Amino acid sequence: MDGVGHFGLNGSINTANGSSNAVGGGAGGGAGGGGIYVKSDFKKTTNIFSKVYEDILSTYSQSVSNNPLKKRRQSTPPINLASDNYNPNYIIGCQLSVWHDTAGPVVEQLWTTPEYNLPSEFQSFMARQTLCGLDTKITSEEMRFNIYPEHSIMSSSIIFNARYNDKITKFALSLYMDLSKLSIYQHIHDIIADRLSMLASFILRNYCNNIADQISFTKELVLVCINLEHLYSSNYPHVDILSTFLMDAKPQDNDFFVKVITSHLQTNGSTVVFGTQQAQVLKWLDTLSLFLTPNEKALSTRILTNKEYIPDLVIQGLIDVSLKQIEENIYLSLKPVTVVDLDKMEIFQTHIQYRYTSYREDILKNILLQSQTRSDDKSLNRFKDPSIYIQKMVTEVYSLPMEMREIYLIHYMKLLLRKASFVVAYSQSNECLGINFAKKLKSDLNLPSESDVYTLFGVAEKLQLNLFISAIKLEEMERAFTMFTDGF
């Protein structure tokens, strides 16, 4: 079985020949090959840069003239990304460009890898392509994606405002990647955009504080590169349903089994399984992989050699780690996460839907504005509420002969997807569901429980990231909540 993920869901990224800067739109030439654009039928949340831009400018504006930066026409010597802890495979390099009033677009800093050296002419071309013709009055960041077949590379760039001495100017941070991984890039564009937005925020903070030393920034860049390398190299193998729990005579612990599947679906299939018994961890991963789409399986791993949690791998297993170790970096994940502790038979879940997005933004803003590691806020909560739909599915599966279970599971997941599509359509047709949207949907649509509402929205997120936020009209909910709290 190739997974019960064959919902027929197509990715939201389409090729557009001759439109090299089509991701996110924006000014600039399109020389250098074809590009990719992302359909935006549903409103997505803004990246962290927009959330901290004004705050960082105001926080560090007082001391910008004390130690002015020296403008230069040539960049400093390239910094090697490779180290004892990181051996680049698919990340080829990175470039920071800046617009100077007198020199125009220049390469401020280049990061390279031993196996690939970008020609200086290409570096200058990238600086011109990303920065020419832009207006600093536009304060929002802009994402671009370009393909350069003659160099066998692709680049993802974020263009943003930052302070250079006492003036606001345009910066561009471009990440160069191996073109052979284009098919995977299409599925992780949102993740890369998120990471580039975080890196741009670090640059904004440093330059607003007149810190052009790239050593501390390089550490952040390497962590992002390591994360992306894991995503590019991941791929979950074919799973035979005979090797999963669904072919057992019955679950060892039915309640635990139902809760794991429920939380797994509520967090859009993003799950970490950890314990001390390798065979059990692998069997759980194989079982959970049945509920993933082919695209999600391409961003999952069955390898248990990782010693720490890898943000945005869809499913992953860890051996001999603690819950605290996983929790330390879980906020970096773009999606909510389920964590399963097999030794203690406990299930933990981050906040889900818009609550996770808000929680994550708060942590990142705290790090960027206060220049400190995140606080000890609790990011994982014990999961307790199983879905009635999943309980019914599990009961039916184990009542069937083994040769019929696979077919039943496929059809039941398609049924959940149809129900999820209906819930989303109904939500979008309402002016405002209100803060208690789960209760309202449960009542209006006669759903078994609020946990089923969250499960259906989790399934719907497989269609489009942040579809939930679009459906419930989060902005209207936030305005209503602000009006309510302002009265006290």
From TrEMBL:
InterPro entries: C9orf72 (IPR027819)
Protein name listed in UniProt: Uncharacterized protein
Chain coiled-coil ranges: none
A GO-annotated cellular component: endosome
PROSITE patterns xref list: DENN_C9ORF72 (PS51835)
GO annotation (BP), single: endocytosis
Gene Ontology MF annotations: guanyl-nucleotide exchange factor activity
Organism: Cavenderia fasciculata (Slime mold)
